[in-house]
């Protein structure tokens, strides 16, 4: 495999622009098994030199991705290509992924037709969490059922990410290049700080909780900007479009990051939504039976779902029945 082919292969792995003719060349190389040993040696040398000591990359894996790319590009102008799964197939290419609280994490390349700008998506599936290191040195913790999307130009042209779900951010300070978090209803602008954004689609509020520093919350339905200082929470109502604020209870807002599930005077519907995300289950109940119930519960790392269900049964007078990934909660009359 000559140097030109190596350069094409490296660009393909990094999600950069690859022309039709270059893809044909890659396909030709990988359909001729005579290059297998050479390519495996090139991969080993490449990542040993870069210091990546926990990566599993193989000739067969890359061959499959090239064939998938060819097949999908015929039908889609842009697509997600799943390149990291439970085997941590290609760690630390777009971001360094650490997994202290989870079993698996997904990282995707999103190729665009122009090839000028591609995107990376890091995702924590339901029932799992993830820690992601961005190219600028900032760190993001993703809560269950959450993902972030950022450009291949991140930290070169800008520091902008899109968030779906909930994430805690430790942002490296750079006053000349602000860090933006985009959500469907509002944006958060910072230069360097520690904060949490809860922007789940099924929650009535988007909450920005500031642990340290200063941020500005920018509404998308107007030109309003709201400064937020450390130790406070700014809540945006999706229904009324109103803004409110209150003091930060750090244990409640970001306890999830340390694998602590905490409810403080939560209504039953909020509790059910948290359980569904945390344990990747479906919670079934009659809302009318529990509309007056509020719960305060603190579960530490390692405590099981059964323990939480015992507390619910005792606190609200209910019976919890578990069948596979479904929990039925019925009120005892």
What this model shows, in words?
- The protein has 333 residues and is α+β, with helices and mostly antiparallel strands.
- The protein folds into 3 domains: 74 residues, no CATH class; 178 residues, Jelly Rolls (Sandwich); 72 residues, Phage tail protein beta-alpha-beta fold (3-Layer(bab) Sandwich), CATH 3.55.50.30.
- 25% of the residues lie in helices and 36% in strands.
- It contains 7 helices and 21 strands.
- It has a 16-stranded mixed β-sheet that branches.
- The radius of gyration is 23 Å and the shape is globular.
> Percent range for helical residues?
10-25%
The biggest sheet amounts to: 16 strands, mixed
In terms of DSSP E residues, the strand content is 35-45%
The radius of gyration over CA amounts to 23 Å
The secondary-structure class comes to: alpha+beta
Oligomer: single chain
Supply the CATH architecture of the largest domain. Answer: Sandwich
Count of DSSP H/I helices: 7
- How would you state the average pLDDT, rounded? 78
> How many strand segments?
21
Give the C-level CATH assignment of the largest domain: Mainly Beta
Q: Secondary-structure map with pairings?
A:
Blueprint lengths: L2 H11 L6 H12 L4 H15 L8 H15 L5 E6 L11 E3 L7 E6 L7 E6 L5 E4 L5 E4 L3 E6 L7 E12 L8 E4 L3 E5 L3 E6 L5 E8 L1 E6 L5 E5 L2 E6 L5 E5 L2 H5 L6 E7 H12 L2 E3 L9 E6 L5 H12 L1 E6 L2 E6 L2
Parallel strand pairs: 8-9, 18-21
Antiparallel strand pairs: 1-3, 2-5, 3-4, 4-7, 5-6, 6-8, 7-8, 8-11, 9-10, 10-13, 11-12, 12-15, 13-14, 15-16, 17-19, 20-21
Helix pairs in contact: 2-4
């Amino acid at each position: 495999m000559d140097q030109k082919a190596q350069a094409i292969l490296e660009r393909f792995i990094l999600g950069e622009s690859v022309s039709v003719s270059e893809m044909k060349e890659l396909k030709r190389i990988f359909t001729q098994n005579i290059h297998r040993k050479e390519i495996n040696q090139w991969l080993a040398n490449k990542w040993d030199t870069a210091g990546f000591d926990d990566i599993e990359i193989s000739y067969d894996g890359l061959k499959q991705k090239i064939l998938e790319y060819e097949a999908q590009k015929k039908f889609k102008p842009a697509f997600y290509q799943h390149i990291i799964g439970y085997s941590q197939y290609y760690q630390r290419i777009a971001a360094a992924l650490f997994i202290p609280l989870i079993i698996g994490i997904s990282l995707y390349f999103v190729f665009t037709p122009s090839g000028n700008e591609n995107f990376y998506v890091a995702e924590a599936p339901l029932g799992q969490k993830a820690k992601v290191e961005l190219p600028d040195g900032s760190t993001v913790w993703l809560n269950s059922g959450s993902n972030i999307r950022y450009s291949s130009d991140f930290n070169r042209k800008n520091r902008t990410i899109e968030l779906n779900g909930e994430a805690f951010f430790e942002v490296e300070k750079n006053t000349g290049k602000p860090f933006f978090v985009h959500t469907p209803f509002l944006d958060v602008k910072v230069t360097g700080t520690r904060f949490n954004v809860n922007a789940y689609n099924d929650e009535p509020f988007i909450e920005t909780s500031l642990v340290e520093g200063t941020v500005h919350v920018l509404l998308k339905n107007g030109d309003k900007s709201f400064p937020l200082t450390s130790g406070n929470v700014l809540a945006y109502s999706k229904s009324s479009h109103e803004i409110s604020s209150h003091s930060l209870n750090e244990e409640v807002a970001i306890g999830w990051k340390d694998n602590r599930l905490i409810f403080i005077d939560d209504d039953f519907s909020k509790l059910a939504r948290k359980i569904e995300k945390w344990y990747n289950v479906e919670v079934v109940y009659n809302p009318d039976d529990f509309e007056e119930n509020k719960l305060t519960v603190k579960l530490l790392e390692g405590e099981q779902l059964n323990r939480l269900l015992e507390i619910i049964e005792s606190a609200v007078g209910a019976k919890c029945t578990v069948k596979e990934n479904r929990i039925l909660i019925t009120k005892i009359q």
